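Q: Study each token:
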Amino acid sequence: MSLSNLQPAEGSVKKGKRIARGEGSGKGGTAARGHKGAKSRSGYSRKIGFEGGQMPLQRRVPKFGFTNINRKEYQGINLDKLQEFFEAGKINETVDLNALIDARLAHKNDLVKILGRGELKAKLNITAHKFTASAKAAIEAAGGSAVTL
């Protein structure tokens, strides 16, 4: 035995139907494609979501509202999370964007907003893009400072 005389086992490979090879083959004429219509034509491929001419779902469902292309998306960080990270030693008294990125509270291109949920006991000097009024008041009440970028 060598690579030149390898062949599949007897009966394991079936011969394909030879369609569109004349009337005498029994598969001539319409070549097993039926009569007329897009599916009988060469090059036919059904569009994604095509429902046989019925109005497709994505066109039946009503659209409403609009998306503001100028919207600024802020990454919110609550005071209780900052207190938790301070106690764990993941952040120190000075909290800026780099410290938040290192602590994995934000990504490098995020706009950061400090939110007022929870209680802040630590004296933190926080630098961020935005602060809620309650967060700013809580930071200053704890003896820290809130600096807006």
Summary: The helical segments are 57-60, 79-88, 97-102, 133-141. The beta strands are 74-78, 94-95, 111-115, 125-128, 130-131, 145-148. The longest helix spans residues 79-88. The mean pLDDT is 91.
